[in-house]
Amino acid sequence: MIIALKQDASDDEIARFTAVLEQRGVTVHVSRGTSQTVLGLVGDTSGFDSEAIGAHHLVAKVIRVQEPYKRANRLFHPEDTRISVQSGTEHQIIGGGMLGIIAGPCSVESEDQIIAVAKAVKAAGASFLRGGVFKPRTSPYSFQGMGCEGMNLLAAAKKETALPLVSELMEIHQLEVFDEIDIIQVGARNMQNYNLLKELGKCSKPILLKRGLASTVTELLMAAEYIMAGGNEQVILCERGIRTFENFSRNTLDISVVPWLKQKTHLPVIVDPSHATGIASLVPAAAKAAIAAGADGLIIEVHNDPESALCDGEQSLTPEAFSDLMGTLKKYAEMEGKQF
């Protein structure tokens, strides 16, 4: 249930009204916008009389929410959520008109490699550095990442460039070595690992949640709800392509999901054109389409020597190609009223 309050409601009145509602066994989420305060009731509201609540002198409107996701629902939080990350002198924002560009190699391979790529993507205008150190691979014989050693190399790249870091977490015990990571990524294969999501709900860091290979958007939003229900509302949704009968590309980029999600949720929505297409030459077009569709950012794989990459070289852009793409994306961002 959503309760929109009148503009003249004072903080004391809102607090008293919220306390009365919570006495009836629900949790009340208070969202204060620039023009209106909205109360989102989570729990069993079947016994609540909408007309009686609507008659309260503070209430402007009462809305019954049919969707199973509550905290992620735009009705609960009408204004866009902005994810803010501070790393040294760097202050980056994703959402609310600010585009977040996350770039870097699929996996950290050496100190020279990750620092070279970090410098290149920062010079091109990227706002975050990505790099995998724990890699979920289809084959047990494929490169699985450098683990803790790779984390140290990411930290070195962060020290060198001040770029905030994004890296994938596979198991909750790995949090022990994620001190330097600014945004924790949950990969497609772990989107419905509910025990992991519950634990990340207790985390204070933003979570980048990728859509599963065969997951509906409602399932994606419910996965976000698991994290938010635990208390962590810093969630970034990522469309990274889904599995269909088509096989010319690695996955099928569901570009229409971007405007749909922007209607349904207040959370930032970004797109991963690298995993969606799996082909470096297709990444620029998919990235431009994502910005035009309203995405709040991109996560793009960049490698200084794609042909020798230990992971996903075929979908990685060179630093030069990434720099050229960024010049084009800035023009698209301006047309959409957004900025880096």
Reading the helices and strands in chain order gives EHEEHEEEEHEHEEHEHEHEHHEH
| Shape category | elongated
Task: Determine the structural class based on helices, strands and strand pairing.
Answer: alpha/beta
Number of strands: 14
Distance between the termini: 36 Å
Helix content: 25-40%
What's the alpha carbon Rg, rounded to whole Å?
21 Å
- Tally of individual helices: 10
Mean pLDDT: 93
Low-confidence stretches: none
Major beta sheet summary: 8 strands, parallel, barrel
Fold and architecture overview:
The radius of gyration is 21 Å and the shape is elongated. The strands form three sheets. It has an eight-stranded parallel barrel with strand order 7-8-9-10-11-12-13-14, surrounded by five helices. It has ten helices and 14 strands. The model has no long low-confidence stretch (mean pLDDT 93). Helix content is 31%, strand content 19%. It is of the alpha/beta class. It has helices at 11-22, 50-54, 111-124, 148-161, 194-200, 217-229, 257-264, 273-277, 283-293, 319-335; strands spanning 2-5, 27-32, 37-42, 59-63, 83-87, 90-94, 100-104, 128-130, 165-168, 183-186, 207-210, 235-239, 269-271, 297-301. The longest helix has 17 residues, at 319-335.
Précis, in short:
By secondary structure, the protein is of the alpha/beta class. The protein contains ten helices and 14 strands.
Give the helix/strand layout.
Layout: E1 2-5, H1 11-22, E2 27-32, E3 37-42, H2 50-54, E4 59-63, E5 83-87, E6 90-94, E7 100-104, H3 111-124, E8 128-130, H4 148-161, E9 165-168, E10 183-186, H5 194-200, E11 207-210, H6 217-229, E12 235-239, H7 257-264, E13 269-271, H8 273-277, H9 283-293, E14 297-301, H10 319-335
Parallel strand pairs: 7-8, 7-14, 8-9, 9-10, 10-11, 11-12, 12-13, 13-14
Antiparallel strand pairs: 1-3, 1-4, 2-3, 5-6
Helix pairs in contact: 3-4, 3-10, 5-6, 9-10
